[in-house]
Amino acid sequence: MMKNISAEQEYREQIKQEGLTVGIFTTTWCPDCKRLDMFIDEITQEHQDKQWFTIDRDEFPEISEEQTVMGIPSLLVFKDGEKIAHLHSANAKTPEAVNEFLNNL
Predict the structure, then answer these.
(1) Which of 3, 17, 30, 32 is catalytic?
(2) Is 33 one of the annotated active-site residues of the chain?
(3) pLDDT digits over 57-93, tens only?
(4) What are the helix and strand counts (H, E) for the chain?
(5) Residues 6+ apart with CB under 8 A from 18
């Protein structure tokens, strides 16, 4: 299930999880984010072993800067509070690309 982050504290707690947590950095106005929205549900179904959250880059610019999120959507993978992988927006355009990224973790 996808959790929507509404406070920085919530984000900090979310990324500290022991298992893998995937954060999708997004905004309301980005066309590529809407395209990702069309197929992300199927991907989260296939990867239920991971925690999932979305965070609005415009609402949390400091976090986005801290994690070097330039383009959106970006998928960041965290484990024990550390970022261990980052799928940049240019590579997050197809379900195949996103699945390949997650399968290689």
Answers:
(1) 30
(2) yes
(3) 999 999 999 999 999 999 999 999 999 999 999 999 9
(4) 4, 5
(5) 79, 80
